[in-house]
Amino acid sequence: MLESLSIRNIVLIEDLQISFKNGLCLLTGETGAGKSILLDALGLALGARAEARLLRPGASKAQVTANFSLPPTHPLWKELDDQGIHHEGGELIFRRTLEGDGKSKCFLNDQVITQSLMRQLGQELVEVHGQFDKLLQPKSHLKALDDYGKVDKSMVEEAFKAYREARETLKTFQENLGRAQERQAFLRFASDEIEKINPKPGEVPELERERALISHRAKMAETFKVVDQGLASALSGLFLSHKTLTRIQDLLSEKINPLLKTADRAIIEVQELCEELKFLQGEVESTPHDLEILENRLYAIRGLARKYQTEDLLATLKSFQEELNSLDHGEDTLKALEKKLEEGRYTYLKNANHLSKIRKEKALELQKALTEELGPLKLGQVHFRVHFDVFSEDSWGSNGVDRVEFFIQTNPGIPEGPLSTVASGGELSRLMLALKVVLVQSGAVPTLIFDEIESGTGGAVAAAMGERLYALSKSLQILAITHSPQIASYGSEHLVISKSVQEGVTTTRVHVLEEAERDEEIARMLAGEEITEEARAAARRLMGVRR
Fold first, then answer.
1. Which domain holds residue 294?
2. What is the mean pLDDT of residues 199-228?
């Protein structure tokens, strides 16, 4: 609950300390006295947007501090642990400072926190209700119903997660497959083109060698002829030399025999050289390719190599074929992913439909409970219904497939319609209160603030609203800003907000009324500016019923 609120230099408030009790705390005062300033200040302490206009004229800095106490079982403690915020349990101190340039700093238990975290935590501590209650927004109705029925959505959340992942995986694969199919057409064309030319291992070096032979065939033939003539002449000379040396072999055998052996070896080597030369000459002359054909072949192979940016067409062809083989299995993968998505869709719908069935059962309970609340609030003729619709698949989510909205029928024979558009101002105020009374047990927020929720009502209806607020305060701390004396008479604590002007400076003050002072404030609310004895008597009667 909200224990206290300290405000310094906020609009008309110079320095204000307010303590709050549990139960129903009423805040009253004349229009313009500054009741809305208290809400602005509390909102600032709980993460609302900081604006320089909130700074009191002439002040350089403002500060708001809100103290809360919570039971050990409240879920907020775990959130603080998860955020690494130190606490000793029991008390939370929110503090916000505001500078003249609009900059602000946020603190929780004297630790600096972000504004977004302060706002997130604040929403779990205080709810503000008025004519523009968030329950008027259809998007809040599903959560309200689920909170009321304490609906377990875990199976739907898990099923939706699996369904969404399967859907995204399939979508990504389909996009990739589309690109792959474009790639596939290229790969097939490229593979066919390379296969058509049919390159052989080591073919290019061999072709280059053949081309060199063919292009220089005439030159090599002339060279072979000259070398052949030289070798023939050399061989003839060697034979003649060998024959001549044998004539004196007997005379100088020791000297001539080594020379003859050398000459024999030379003859043999020259003869072998001649044979090799003939073989080479025959190889050159017998080259099977025509130079033009060979050139065209080299040009084709090199052209493909440049086209596919490779030095090894055979290796590239193998790579393309392997990729094609992999892509050929894409259809199988696609079918598997489509099957998985269908399974995920089936499981999700099964769980979502089961959740919808539970919600409709809880909706009947909510309708019954709210109907019981409407009678005391003079709305016995109003019929409340939880309207269900189904989202299309592209709007499915972790909350299921239900679109939920609160519908009402204000009078028999009048068509029903959405809560926010059918009810009048006075009806709407009472409906909001009735809904909050019914839904309150489902929430963890310990403090509720009602800002002139009685708008458009009065008399017995306002008294009925005061009674329901009082009943609600048995479970929660309720702060109610009101202009209704009937509602004010139900308060367990009564604070009057007023403003005064001293030396040209306007200041808002808050006074906690003693029991005896409450009659006078109720009389003022009944009579207006001039408090009559009749008003005082009416106030005493009104308060006497409550005491």
1. 163-331
2. 77
DSSP conformation class of 503: T
- Rounded Cα distance, 294 and 214, in Å: 10
Q: Which are the contacts of 375, defined by CB distance < 8 A and separation ≥ 6?
A: none
The verdict on residue 218 lying in a domain is yes
73 domain residue, yes or no:
no
At 528 the pLDDT is 75
Q: Are 235 and 270 in contact (CB under 8 A)?
A: yes
Average pLDDT of the residues in 22-47: 86
Rounded to whole angstroms, the Cα distance separating 258 from 468 reads 140
Pairing mode, if any, of strands 126-129 and 111-113?
Answer: unpaired
Number of domains in the chain: 1
Distance CA 541, CA 248 (A): 169
- Does residue 177 fall inside a structural domain? yes
pLDDT, tens only, 157-170: 999 999 999 999 99
pLDDT in the model for residue 289: 55
Q: Report yes or no on 320 lying in a domain.
A: yes
Instruction: Please state which of the ranges 198-207, 336-345, 353-362 shows the lowest mean pLDDT.
Output: 198-207
Q: Which two tokens stand for residue 6?
A: 């300290």
| Short-list 360, 354, 349, CA closest to 404 | 360
HSE value, Cβ hemisphere, 13 Å, CA-based, for 366: 30
Residue 103 to residue 405: CA distance in whole angstroms: 40
Q: pTM higher than 0.85, yes or no? A: no
